[in-house]
Amino acid sequence: MAALDAIDDDFALVDGGPVAVDSLWRTVLRSLDCGSRDGRIVVHPSWWSASRVGVITAAAETDDPNEVAARPRSWLLTQASPDAGPEGSAVVEIAERLVAVIGAEVVAVPRRAEPELIAEEVAGVIGGMTRAVVLIDAPSTVAGAAALATLIADAVRGGGGEQKVVEIDDARLLQLARPALNALPNQDKPRPNEGAGGPRSRARRLGLLAAGVVLVAAVPTMATVGRHGGPVADKTPTTFLVEGRVALTVPANWPTQRVVAGPGSARVQVTSPSDPEVALHVTQSPVVGETLSRTAERLKRAIDAEPAGVFVDFNPDGMSAGRPAVTYREVRAGHHVRWTVLLDGVVRISVGCQSRPGGEDAVRDVCEQAVRSAHALG
Fold this sequence. Notes:
Number of helices: 10
Helix content: 25-40%
Number of strands: 19
Oligomer: single chain
Strand order of the largest sheet: 12-13-14-18-17-16-15
């Protein structure tokens, strides 16, 4: 779907022509509308970043003057275990390229191994949580999700724990929608227009919620889940950014955009909301039979072809966040970017950590977290 592919961009290519992404999302949401004039509830994947949720809610609000309430998919799934509640439940959401485990934190397990191994790894993550109920989401739109959900359930049960395991398919998820809306505190429910109300308006809201669930079920691989492995330097909320064949941990409240113009390669840029000169840059390239030394040779030739002083401190045998890497520094007006180039399988991953000259502390922890967590997806 073009709207999903371009959610980080301003424009999408549709039928050979450019279309504004906000307009495209309004069209998508309008296609799911069942005629309501009331506010909407948008249920989104739990690993979406704040910026991506903002794109959807802004599109909904522009198309409909009523308020929009956004809730993660895990909020709906936990309605299947009302006695345990969110604090007593671990939610497993299966996507095309990863499995997200949502508890006190969110952990992502890449789907790049055999299903049995993935199931064992997910069960291991759950085993480290003190949760009474495990809720496993198995959307029919994700290839192999139902079979993987069964393997995960078996692995959890076989781990010796006492957790109750519940598998939730599309039909069951839709059944949870109506009581979930009714369970929302009044202040969290979308407010309808004046004059709208009563049973009819409630039915409309529920219809839109169901439509929202269908939307999410159709697009469960949207980018971001929270923390994945390794310690987090502070209490800043994090998400797991998924871009192409690469995933890594970034701050949840830093807006994300694709950059295709200006100096450097096309990349994803994640920028601090408090300082536009503090950012992360992520690029990726498919490589076959590549070694880190060969990568260093290629980079050195490219750097030597640039004007002197733009790329400095080149180290072909560097270390970054405990990982072997090629490292160097890019010097630009107003900021410097420290680049870490990694190899993971057949993917070359470059993480650039941008800060003002002499201000590396502003990005240091975020940078180490991103480099430590960066990996290729299957």
